[in-house]
Known about the structure:
By secondary structure, this protein is of the alpha/beta class. α5 crosses α6, α12 packs parallel to α14 and α13 packs antiparallel against α14. It is globular, with a radius of gyration of 20 Å. The chain starts with a helix and ends in a 15-residue tail after the last helix. The N terminus is likely disordered.
Amino acid sequence: MAVWRTLVPGMAAVAAASALLGAPALRTHSVVLITTDGLRWQEVFSGADAQLLNKEAGVSDPAALKQEFWRDTPGARREALLPFLWTVMARQGQIYGNLPLGSVARVTNGHNFSYPGYNELLSGKADPRVDSNDKKPNPNLTVLEWLNGRDPYRGKVAAFCSWDVFPWIINRERSGVFVNAGFEPTTSAGDSGRRAMLNQLLADTTPFVEGVRHDSFTFAAALDYVRAARPRVLYLSLDETDDWAHQGRYDNYLRSARSFDDYTRRLWDEMQGMDEYRGRTTFVITTDHGRGSAPVEWKSHGEKIPASENIWIAVMGPDTPALGERTQTGTVTQSQVAPTVAAFLGEDFAGAIAGVAHPIDGALGGR
Length: 367
């Protein structure tokens, strides 16, 4: 595969490979990348953590939280927490990162916090220069910028992000990508009355965390944009899972995770109801870093918490074999997300940019 990909770049490579190998052509026309900040693999694969369903973990009503999220088995608990991920995505697609089953997903930047993670995730490689969360323009080319510079996607790439650092992470000024982040008002096309109401609510809302708007506003803005602008590449970045974990509120951390799952479902259902997206859209969902273990380190992450390098990645779409929860897959990395996003569109980001990781082979049926 490496030979033909090197010789025949981009869409021509996909066509040539399909002809030579008898594989069907890629059907994906649009890709949606969704991240929720700092959601642990432990909850993703096992649901609510028994060690944290208590007042010591900031739970205001342990009995009510147990009724809401506790079930007798890990499989039932994770479905209660993330029903769309486990009853739809994991059945129709694939999910990586369950360590006990021999499926490892991890970051490679060594920092295990947000800006280095988002840089790795979006640019396809770690960069030692990116070592803080400061608002500095990203020196690296993200897959969003790269795709936006190509004719089929020019002006059809957009990002809606809860954290206000994303205009720098995506390097909005250089890239030309449409980025709406933090408490910026929504300016995109769509229902003007709804947009005015959303912007007024946003202006009237007190931030819970400085520089981070509530995920509900980010999702609503992204959904309106999809309805009006029909992007081919959409990035939706949510943040509240990390915010509540840092606050030591396990109850709201779980509820934010379930909201993330519900936003993913609603966006999928909305897009499957549109002719240009139905049966032609791939979803990739993941996180920027992991967290430490219960009962204390779950609140934090970073270089001093090595376990926070462990993440998870899920994929579903017309070109992804329905292999479900992957086992014994070895290691996939955060740096593979960007080239995988491009590969679903028949584009060779890994071949175009030096140092970029290769796509997750199994996610594309081995192409």
